[in-house]
Specification:
By secondary structure, the chain is of the alpha/beta class. The protein has 21 helices and 26 strands. β9 and β10 form a beta hairpin.
């Protein structure tokens, strides 16, 4: 270790040039990363995080250009290096891990060869040495059977394994600086926890400094030593993790934390506080403070008078903020008391699912459709009931059967066995095209990606009117037009948005249009499949609370499918945990988030990153990947990854699927563990004050 910074960025300005104008993307950005230090970079989409990373890599494309400032790596100015010098540094001394692992892997080359290429290109070593190093790095990233992995192609590995390969590739030359750009966004929360654990361990082993880009503040807390918060191209606050998390001194940082569901948030008493207004486009930035139009502390004549510089705070020379009113703001003042908006009392049972099974017959050979056929058990004996005005959250890893269940409820798939009843009427074997219009209108869906659910060539208002026509709402065009405007009011969008095209809307606004369309026919049951996972955290709060407001007004039953247990804890009345097609736990939110747990639920809770320095968590990392539904394990579906398996005698977990047992107050768990073992479980998540 030396005292010289690994990376030193000073007053960096990056612009992109079009035929019409120069668009500033990053302005007056500075940060320093010391040897062995991990720096987090957070902010909303479009704030310039990835542009900073690409600036460090000197890979801004044809239109991007550094127009001011400097970037020094180990004391050398990257901007003065020749293309050959940069090639020698990239991949050897500076490595980058991207969000989508398959974008970094060659689908036509075996994994071993791709790993060996790195030292063969950058170092003068033999093939045998490169192969030995590749095997060692595969062991370091905790991949099972490294010899088999070396001979595999990328498509033969899971998403989590692919990301580990990309990390291994980045570490092959033992770089001094590792840049990670949202490396876990596309992964399950349990795989994310394993990757985070891995990155922290490897950083310590190799002494690698890291620039970790993420929108997830909980993830930054678990991985980084220092943090830089960006907004609209500028760094607005920087400091150590404890400085920024516990002594935040910029209104945007404060607003970010108020918009995420930390422990203690309550949808009725302490709802999330969404950041008002919209993120400014680069060519529409306001005068003075970029955050001014959305800031609760904005002062006209001061905050909009001119450019605002980053200033060092008195308590710490490495804690800085770009705010003029730091001394005047009471940073410890509690949030103003919110109006107590209690949820509606639960009504009659609206949806009833009994012993639902959904099987698919697929070819055993993925490349041909002939030969032996196997059965994929996507849903296995699923039973639950949901009442009017109730929110049931459905959680689990990818491949557990959540979306298949949603498709059966919607009629996009039909059940193989069992029953699905809406108001006592069976619909399990009726595809959507054969369902009554009233039934289709009653069960609607809000999809994960708002960008893919709207027709780009039709205006927002016309798309909502089309849904009203399908559901036979209104007797005339005028009535449907009026109803469309009322639906825009319902989702809190201005009525003039009716004439806009989808491309003119932000991600959060598009999702609101999707919600308006779902309620066009007066939906009584809404299946929300990851409705906020594609949105920024500040927008998530607004969309989540919008769903809650509509539920209170319309007495809607909400099935909320998610992998984000923080949001689930905030908004759900009950939680259903799924694993490999089975429901393994079902109970009220308090029951599922408190011991006793199903062992899988315990691991899920441990994997949730929480942006609170007062939170203590048990450290439980699931080994291995979720088994294939085409070839599930015998006995308990979770037994291959369960850390409690040794507590069950006589190999029962290997032989028999556990029965669904009812514990106290209707809390259901599908597990062989004895009552006294379940009673010994301790809370996974606790606060330092013991809560």
């Amino acid at each position: 270790m030396t005292d010289q910074p690994v990376l030193e960025i000073s007053n960096l300005h990056i612009s992109f040039f079009t035929r019409l104008m120069e668009i500033p993307a990053v302005m007056d950005f500075s940060c320093t990363i010391q040897p062995g230090e991990a720096m987090g970079l957070v902010g909303e989409s479009g704030c310039g995080k990835s542009t900073v990373a690409l600036g460090v890599m000197q890979d801004l494309g044809v239109n991007g250009r550094i127009v001011g400032g400097s970037i020094k790596f180990q004391g050398q100015d990257l901007m003065t290096m020749s293309p050959e010098e940069l090639r020698n540094i990239r991949g050897s001394k500076i490595a980058m891990i991207y969000q989508e692992p398959m974008a970094s892997l060659n689908p036509t080359m075996k994994i071993g060869r791709q790993l060996m290429e790195v030292p063969l290109i950058h170092e003068d070593i033999s093939e045998s040495e490169a192969e030995a190093r590749a095997l060692q790095v595969l062991e370091d990233v905790k991949l099972p059977d490294p010899e088999r992995i070396m001979t595999a192609f990328p498509h033969q590995l899971s998403g989590g394994q692919q990301q580990r390969i990309v990390i291994a590739m980045a570490l092959m030359s033992k770089p001094a600086l590792l840049i990670l750009d949202e490396p876990t966004t596309a992964l399950d929360v349990t795989v994310e926890a394993a990757i985070v654990d891995l990155v922290k361990g490897l950083g310590k082993k190799y002494g690698t400094s890291m620039l970790f880009i993420s929108h997830n503040l909980g993830l930054i807390l678990e991985t980084c030593d220092r943090l830089c918060v960006m907004y609209s191209g500028e760094a607005v606050e920087t400091g150590s993790i404890t400085d920024v998390f516990d002594k935040m001194r910029h209104p945007y940082t404060q607003a970010l934390f108020r918009s995420i569901p930390l422990p203690g948030a309550d949808k009725n008493v302490r709802p999330l506080v969404a950041i008002r207004g919209n993120f400014p486009l680069p060519h529409e930035r306001p005068q003075g403070c970029n955050f001014g139009p959305r800031c609760d502390y904005f002062q006209s004549g001061l905050c909009d008078a001119g450019n605002i510089q980053m200033q060092t705070l008195d308590d710490n020379d490495r804690h800085g903020s770009r705010c003029l009113r730091i001394a005047e703001i009471d940073w410890d003042a509690p949030l103003e008391a919110q109006s107590d908006t209690q949820s509606n009392p639960l009504g009659e049972v609206v949806l009833e699912v009994e012993d639902l099974r959904k099987y698919y017959q697929v070819s055993a050979n993925a490349l041909t459709s002939g030969g032996t056929r196997k059965v994929v058990k996507a849903n296995e004996t699923i039973s639950f009931r949901v009442r009017e005005s109730e929110t049931l959250a459905i959680v689990g890893e990818s491949g557990c059967g959540k979306s298949t269940l949603a498709k059966v409820l919607m009629g996009l798939e039909t059940a193989s066995d069992g029953a699905v009843k809406v108001d006592g009427n069976n619909i399990e074997f009726t595809p959507i095209e054969d369902r009554k219009t009233e039934t289709v209108a009653d069960i609607q869906m809000v999809f994960q990606n708002p960008f893919d659910t709207l027709n780009p060539s039709i205006s927002v208002g016309s798309q909502i009117v089309r849904a009203l026509e399908i559901f036979h709402i209104g007797n005339s065009d005028q009535e449907r037009e009026q109803r469309m405007l009322e639906l825009l009011d319902l989702v809190k969008l201005p009525r003039e948005f009716a004439r806009r095209m989808p491309r003119q809307l932000s991600g959060g606004q598009k999702q609101r249009v999707g919600i308006a369309r779902a309620f066009a026919g007066g939906a009584r049951i809404v299946v929300a499949d990851e409705p906020v996972s594609a949105l920024d955290v500040s927008v998530q709060a607004a969309v989540t609370d919008l769903l809650m407001d509509i539920q209170r007004e319309k007495k809607t039953t909400l099935l909320f499918i998610s992998h984000d247990l923080s949001i689930v804890r905030y908004l759900s009345d009950r939680v259903m945990v799924m694993y490999l097609g089975h429901v393994v736990e079902l109970g009220s939110t308090d029951q599922v988030f408190s011991p006793p747990y199903h062992p899988y639920t315990e691991a899920l809770l441990s994997a949730v990153p929480i942006a609170d320095t007062q939170v203590q968590k048990q450290h439980i990392v699931l080994e291995g990947d979720i088994p294939s539904a085409m070839n599930p394990p015998s006995g308990c579906p979770f037994q291959t990854r369960c850390r409690w398996k040794s507590e069950v005698k006589d190999g029962l977990c290997d032989r028999e699927v556990p029965p669904m047992r009812t514990l106290a107050d209707g809390h259901q768990v599908k597990c062989h563990l004895a009552e006294e073992i379940l009673a010994k479980m301790t809370p996974v998540i606790t606060l330092e004050n013991g809560a």
